[in-house]
Amino acid sequence: MAEFGWIDYTVFGALLVVSAGIGVGTCKDQSKSANQFLTAGGKMGCIPVALSMLASFLSSITLIGQPAEVYLYGGQQWLFGMATFFIIPIVGYIIVPFFRGKNYCSAYQYFGERFDRRLQMLASILFTFQMIVYLALVLYAPALAMNQVTGLNTMLVVSIMYGVCIFYTTIGGMRGVVWIDSFQIVVLFVAMFAVLLKGTIDIGGVSVIWERSKEFNRTNFFNFSFDMTERYTFWSSFVGSGFLHMSIYGGNQLQIQRFLTVSSVKEARKMLWLNTIGWTLVVFMCVYAGLLIFASYCYCDPLLTNRISTPDQLFPLYVMETLKIYPGFPGLFLCGIFSAGLSTVSTGVNSLAAIWFAELDGTEFKKNLSESSSGLVVKIMALGFGILSYVTVFAVPYMGGLVELGVSLTSTLTGSLLGIFLLGIRFPKANAMGATVGLVVSVVVLSWIALGESYSRSLGLKVHPPLPSSVRDCAEPVHINPVENQEEAFVLYRISYTWYCMFAVFITLILGNVVSYIYAAIKKPEEVKPNQETNASNLLLNERELKPVVWAKV
Are 212 and 200 in contact (CB under 8 A)? Predict the structure, then answer.
């Protein structure tokens, strides 16, 4: 087990100190109103917000998990970034003008306006459950992986990071979150680039990586199979991830809230394109990292030799074994991984405060709030959700299937919520009953499939068998028991996770329309009140007349 040196601890500590310092430096005026705390008054530039959106889009799970997926299944994931370029025009010309025109504090206020306040509340509750579990996991999972490779105390690392993150998120508001995210995403790029460059030089160049990856079939970048049970194909990586990206940009509070932090629709579109370029670059780096790690271990696979127990330990193991002789490199890598986690947590906490502040609409409590009092309320909400997420970390090791449920909801819920949004703007006769049934059924069905996949793996059933590797060059002989006639899991449990979001969208749309029709047929006309105020035809009209975002004082 490798250990960190004092230089590594210094590098990692510097990340936390600078992040906290930026939070202190940007805290001016953030407590004066809810508007300032949640959207920075709509006065941020498109470049820092694009970097912040990219940081919140990523997570430490992504940076550790994606290279591990490439290690196991090959580089088909490179299409994840390319797919984004095809959905950004939809987001930029339909979803952005819509949300800026409505000036919603919460992405789910439209559900209350178009359908029913109870549906808005349900969406907020589901999002909150998913986000709390996910935020706990994005810091716990990489800390656990680092612990098993380096011996770093998992809970101590998580506690320090949560303390710093909650501090700067609470005092800095959205302005602080954006600037700290921008700093941390730069750290992430520097760390990844440094590790990949040094690793490439040490292994003998790109040609060595390519030849070794090709030898074990990791270079099949265009698998045109239509089999949805294959982990990655061209169609799942392009079409499936396209739906995922559209739902995240168009149905997720973390991203939609960013639309209001810039001054105009034009600036928001610039922000989206800059974010897309950055995300594509990150995807390429993660794919390359996976191939580099595989080329380093292809003849003595640490998973087959049981040197590590899970794939998410591959990247930390690689860094500690190959780069530990260079002081500061392991610490820089740790900074990069946890920068992604910190940015996700800070953004998530701020977004949770936003949606629950919106849930107070119509209450006497909110009506009686002054401008400064509203700022204090959202700050307390952010603090409370930060503490709740931190407390959840201690329950993660004992939550079992709930962790899988929380993670699966990340793609499933955003797809379902995008489905409701499309249901509202495209189908004027859709009603609250149809939208609610579509949301609930899609979440339940896709969560069942995700949990079934996880349970099947735990039983040793064949779900997505990895591509081959070898142990021929290990220092000591390794005996591997061949697995013969391994029973396959139920076919639905073998569907690739890349399709989950698309299924969620279509289940929500189809069931939403069917149930709306049936409900309207059996109920009296006055009991069914579909709101036809918003439809697709008016989303693109009079865009130039949209006024700058100005929040009403509360």
Answer: no
